[in-house]
Amino acid sequence: MSRYRGPRFKKIRRLGALPGLTSKSPKATNPGTPPPFRKKSQYHIRLEEKQKLRFHYGLTERQLLKYVRLAGKAKGQTGQVLLQLLEMRLDNTLFRLGMASTIPQARQLVNHRHILVNGRIVDIPSYRCKPRDIITGREKEKSKTLIQNYLDSSSRKKLPKPNHLTTHPLQYKGLVNQIIDRKWVGLKIKELLVVEYYSRQT
User: Fold this and answer.
1) What whole-number distance in Å separates Cα of residue 102 and Cα of residue 187?
2) pLDDT confidence of residue 1
3) Nearest Cα to 167, choosing from 176, 158, 159?
4) Which has the least CB within 10 A, 18, 19, 30, 196?
């Protein structure tokens, strides 16, 4: 299944806030009319949690399944390890540093070779950041302008400031201090349900 490129507000209305997908908020339609109540099956509940994770981080179905399998082989609780693996991706780290207003924009910066990790160009959005990594924009004027626009944007101020990252806006630089802690993920997600959804495929 390919990466989602359809209407983003449609997903937000169904799944809730997905700050990685878009920084905008949909306008409420008919606020006085409550949505019809439907009892959800356990499968439906697990599916929605999986979809939240997938659309927030901008992954394909195959990519997310790969991360679930990696998390299952690692030490620790599978759900928490899964979130840590996703949060430490380069595109998500740029987003959390405020160098991009959404994860798709961060992915575009990486793909177009605007980003350096420890002084080297990295053009792979799924690159896994590690503690003590130094992430900077290239010296090119275009790279600096793009990153400065994102750093100045109002959407950046709405994001929680994770303690595992440090931003130096004037130097177009970010530091990875440590692996992210679960409480700083900032996404309302029940990761255990995602693991249960994929339990038959792992």
Assistant:
1) 14
2) 40
3) 176
4) 30
Backbone phi and psi for residue 191, each to the nearest 5 degrees, phi listed first: -65, -25
Q: Which two tokens stand for residue 86?
A: 């996703």
Question: Domain limits at 71?
Answer: 8-27+39-86+187-197
How far is residue 46's CA from residue 198's CA, in Å, rounded to a whole number?
9
From the CA atom positions of the chain, what is the Rg in Å? 17
Mode of pairing for the β-strands spanning 134-137 and 115-117: antiparallel
The C-alpha atoms of residue 164 and residue 60 are separated, in whole angstroms, by 26
Instruction: Answer whether residue 33 is part of any domain.
Output: no
**Which residues does the chain have with pLDDT short of 50?**
1, 29-32, 154
Cβ–Cβ contacts within 10 Å for residue 176, how many? 22
Whether 101 and 79 map to the same domain: the answer is no
Span 132-182, pLDDT tens digits: 999 999 888 888 888 888 877 645 555 666 789 998 888 889 999 999 988
Q: Which of 70, 75, 102 is nearest to 86 (CA)?
A: 70
Give the Cα separation of 151 and 145 in Å (integer): 10
Check residue 17 and give its pLDDT. 61
The contacts of residue 126 (CB under 8 Å, 6+ apart) are 63, 89, 90, 91
Q: What CATH number does the domain containing 62 carry?
A: 1.10.1050.10
How much is the pLDDT for 10? 55
